[in-house]
Design goal:
single chain, alpha/beta, three-stranded antiparallel sheet, globular, disordered N terminus, binds ligand FO1
Length: 323
């Protein structure tokens, strides 16, 4: 109910679809430019899993910690000034240590799990956490329903965090599956926003197209919502100078039979985007992307500090208005 009234008072004008670290960086820039609940960020929940009895939602955590200025700048995930007594003790008693849970970070997982167990929805819990962390934008999970990314690899079928963290993205991907996507519905706030005439821009953050954006788009109605919306859909390239800014995007493109290029990502998105922010270093791809019927904006997309995040966010919004 609270989520709904917040939405009515501040109709959402900008919607971002985001994975973890790269998406959170642009989301922080967007939050600085838009500065209100008019910005909604739908986070990927295909990475979510239960670990040591706790429900972990890594991309929502990274978004919340980044937008509240609490994230660890080196790791990109988890909290800054973290301590690790829990992990030290778990190790001592022979528990699983491949997935690191910091002492402060644990509070988020324990509170979220407790509330989920009492029947609260993930979207309501995330909304409550955002209020407590004093985040103005509305961060929501793409869906409140079960959604699990399953990775078929040359080393067998792996759940997402086993592929990503435990095996450090080393196995070759053969295919990806999003368990639950055939039944999952967009969470209520997101569905309202996708149908809203006030929505001006939908931003596909520079996140991994296969591991972060596809799970969101696999939720029934989201991709169709993007296509039907009168809002401009702008994707920001996760490839810069022919390589991935961070994470396994380049290897994933290769594994799945695509060239490692910004052009390949633009092509992959071309059925539902109006514009593509292409890094200046990939200028050679511009005309071929334009020939797909997608407008191109050349920009320096590397976000090394707050200033560059804000600059890129402004550019996305100006580009959207200009189309
Ligand atoms: N990523 C790691 O590489 N190693 C970890 O031990 C790890 C722990 C972790 C705990 C909580 C959380 O919210 C995120 C965490 N991440 C960790 C990040 C995360 O799992 C991945 O970056 C994403 O799932 C991919 O977006």
């Amino acid at each position: 109910m609270q989520e709904f009234s917040r939405h009515c008072k501040h109709p959402v004008t900008h919607l971002a679809l985001s994975g973890g670290i790269g998406g959170a960086k642009l989301s922080l820039g967007l939050e600085h430019v838009i500065k209100s609940p008019k910005l909604m960020i739908a986070g990927n929940t295909g990475d979510d899993f239960r670990h040591l009895g706790l429900y972990i939602s890594p991309d929502l955590d990274t978004l919340m910690y980044t937008l509240s200025g609490r994230s660890d700048p080196e790791r990109g995930w988890g909290l800054a000034n973290e301590t690790w007594s829990f992990m030290d003790t778990i190790k001592e008693i022979g528990g699983e240590t491949w997935f690191q849970l910091g002492d402060r970070d644990l509070a988020t997982h324990v509170e979220r799990t407790h509330r989920l167990n009492q029947g609260e929805k993930l979207s309501a819990i995330t909304s409550m956490l955002c209020r407590k962390y004093k985040i103005e934008a509305q961060i929501i999970p793409a869906t409140d329903d079960l959604l699990q990314t399953i990775v078929e690899t040359n080393e067998g079928v792996l759940s997402f965090q086993h592929y990503f963290v435990r095996k450090q993205c080393k196995p070759t991907i053969i295919s990806l599956k999003f368990n639950g996507s055939e039944k999952a519905k967009p969470c209520i706030g997101l569905e309202q926003v996708l149908n809203s005439s006030k929505l001006e821009t939908i931003i596909i953050c520079p996140s991994n197209p296969f591991l972060s954006i596809d799970p969101i788009l696999s939720v029934k109605g989201i991709k169709e919502g993007l296509k039907k919306s009168r809002a401009k859909v702008i994707a920001v390239s996760p490839i810069v100078g022919g390589i991935a800014v961070k994470g396994p995007t380049a290897n994933n493109l290769r594994d799945l039979g695509y060239p490692v290029s910004a052009l390949a990502v633009a092509k992959y998105y071309s059925s539902f985007i109006d514009g593509f922010i292409l890094d200046k270093r990939d200028e050679d791809d511009a005309s071929r992307i334009e020939s797909l019927g997608v407008k191109v904006c050349l920009e320096d997309t590397i976000m090394i500090d707050l200033k560059s995040k804000i600059r890129l966010a402004r550019r996305v919004l100006d580009f959207s208005k200009s189309i």
